[in-house]
Design brief:
Largest sheet: 9 strands, mixed
CATH architecture of the largest domain: 3-Layer(aba) Sandwich
Bound molecules: glutamine
CATH topology of the largest domain: Rossmann fold
Number of strands: 25
Radius of gyration: 25 Å
Oligomer: single chain
Shape: globular
Distance between the termini: 62 Å
Strand order of the largest sheet: 13-12-14-15-25-24-23-20-21
Length: 548
């Protein structure tokens, strides 16, 4: 039984994709939170993949990992960053997952021989997802991926239509995000695409209650009235969502446009108290008063698709907020660094710090190793994340310990798998096993794990505690047997798994800032609570910029 006062806001999108529906959902949740409500966000993705774990980052952007080990859509990262509420496995569903569950149940005979159909079996499963795992939330915001009219999302739209009917108007609100394009040559904003998109939604039985209109320029009242008239909504429920200079300005801007007011009005909620937006006002003030500019170079493989590094980019910006400095990112394609004629100095000059982020596969890895060597030898602040840590281990092993053949089994057969596939390890649930034949998703160490920090280490000072919990997403591990060899040459494994078997963090005490971690700290950074590693790293980059 779900709590009978929980209210549902269903967010759909129309006209075009990439309207920033995920961000809009996250920002609306943030403003409702500022009114004192407990919020929860869920995302329904219409694609047939069972989860985004095996999707190419070039196509789908980052795969966001939750504490409980789900590989989810990157929008869940927005949700967490704007609300601070940790997402769960039960917050993201795909058509692939729903169909495979329904089919598995059919095979088990759960449906007692009934004919299995999209309506009601798939739509029931979708409704179960929406209603599942809700405790004491006031609002559940449920974003439907894709654009209204897509064939794939039809069962999703149908399931929210049914819920709207079953729960009634006072418990459900339909918010439709559309585009009001500005035609430069005509000097006009066009409302027709919004009208068409709403018509499409109405054709599927849904009358939107609120329209959130993405626009480049302010929408005049006449245009809003026109949209309201043609789309059958109240003029005050046509909300302008104008492009912002920073995504962290959006919650304030939504509030100014009256979005939270309209939502509360729809649900007959008390409107006397003003929301407490201090958190966002504070961030806005810092952004406006930040001085200087540090340049962080990211040496990666997916630099043509920067959504692959969404959380990383945001965590870097949070580090900037913590230091009240502006940060810009220079993207460096690691494969270019592999070119024999490439002078690494040319690529990395004017960079104040280097990050080698998470990644997969051999291609481009030697270029990343080259950049790590450059950072180590030239005292440039260096931050290695996941794959970046594994490559920092290989760089040090090859160039300092003289383990010339040291490699990772990820790159193929090797005589010296310093980084290897671990097949057994202990978790809270007991012994977990995997092998090379396990399916791709199944072989990963996923989700939050504890890590203990060595007393007196640099990272212990940064975290100001000695047990931390961070999220993982990787298949390979550094072989702990060699940690003493590294230590003799000055590289310290300053974070280890609680059983001491898995090196989780390394640092070079002789270097101004050289830290690499086996986990993804960027996933836990929030604008109002920047991750300590990113705050410290950007601080080091700032020091470096002052040396130039
Ligand atoms: N490819 C490495 C592994 O699977 C690192 C993964 C990552 O950076 N997320 O272990």
């Amino acid at each position: 039984m779900i709590n009978s006062s929980v209210k549902f806001i269903f967010i759909t999108g129309g006209v075009v994709s990439s309207l920033g529906k995920g961000l809009a959902s996250a920002c609306l949740a943030a403003v409702l939170q500022a009114r004192g409500y407990k919020v929860r966000l869920k995302k329904m993705d219409p694609y047939l993949n069972v989860d985004p774990g095996t999707m190419s980052p070039y196509q789908h952007g980052e795969c966001y990992v939750t504490d409980d080990g789900a590989e989810t859509d990157l929008d869940l990262g927005h949700y967490e960053r704007f609300t601070g509420v940790s997402a769960k496995k039960t917050d993201n569903i795909t058509t692939g997952r729903i169909y495979s569950d329904v089919i598995a149940r059919e095979r088990r005979g759960d449906y007692l021989g009934a004919t299995i159909q999209v309506i009601p079996h798939v739509t029931d499963a979708l409704k179960d997802f929406i209603l599942s795992d809700i405790t004491n939330e006031d609002f559940v915001l449920c974003e439907i991926g894709g654009t209204v009219g897509d064939i794939e999302s039809l069962p999703f739209i149908e399931s929210i239509r049914q819920l709207g009917n079953e729960l009634g108007k006072l418990r459900t609100c339909f918010l439709h995000v559309t585009l009001v394009p500005y035609i430069k040559v005509a000097g006009e904003l066009k409302t027709k695409p919004t009208q068409h998109s709403v018509k499409e939604l109405q054709g599927m039985g849904i009358q939107p209650d609120i329209l959130l209109c993405r626009t480049e320029i302010s929408i005049p009242i006449e245009q809003k009235t026109k949209i309201a008239l043609f789309c059958n909504v109240k003029p005050e429920a046509v909300i302008e969502a104008i492009d912002a200079s920073s995504i962290y300005e959006v919650p304030i801007s939504y509030h100014k446009q009256g979005l939270d007011h309209q939502v509360c009005k729809h649900f007959n909620l008390n409107l006397d108290e003003k929301p407490n937006l201090d958190r966002w006002i504070n961030i806005s003030k810092i952004q406006q008063s930040s001085e200087g500019n540090v340049v962080v170079g990211i040496v990666g493989k997916y630099t043509s698709m920067i959504d692959s590094y969404k959380s990383l980019i945001e965590a870097i910006m949070h580090g900037g907020l913590a230091n009240k400095t502006n940060v810009s990112i220079k993207w460096i394609d690691s494969e270019l660094l592999e070119n024999k004629d490439c002078s690494i100095n040319d690529y990395l000059k004017e960079i104040n710090a280097i990050i080698v982020p998470g990644g997969f596969g051999k291609r481009g890895s030697e270029g990343k190793i080259k950049s790590i060597k450059f950072a180590r030898e030239n005292n440039i602040p260096f931050f290695g994340i996941c794959f970046g840590m594994q490559l920092a281990v290989l760089e040090f092993a090859r160039n300092v310990l003289n383990f010339k053949n040291a490699s990772s089994s990820e790159f193929g057969k090797t005589s010296f798998p310093l980084i290897g596939l671990l097949t057994e390890w202990y978790t809270e649930k007991g012994l977990e096993k995997r092998d090379v034949l396990s399916n791709l998703g199944g072989t990963m160490r996923l989700g939050s794990y504890n890590c203990k920090l060595i007393e007196g280490s640099f990272v212990e000072k940064i975290y100001k505690k000695n047990i931390i919990s961070e999220r993982h997403r990787h298949r390979y591990e550094v072989n702990f047997k060699y940690i003493d060899d590294f230590k003799t040459k000055g590289l310290l494994f300053s974070g280890m798994s609680p059983d001491n078997n898995l090196p989780e963090i390394l640092e070079l005490p002789s270097h101004p800032w050289f830290v690499a971690v086996q986990f993804h700290p960027e996933l836990k950074s929030r604008p109002f609570d920047p991750h300590p590693l990113f705050s410290s790293f950007i601080g080091a980059a700032l020091n470096q910029s002052r040396l130039l």
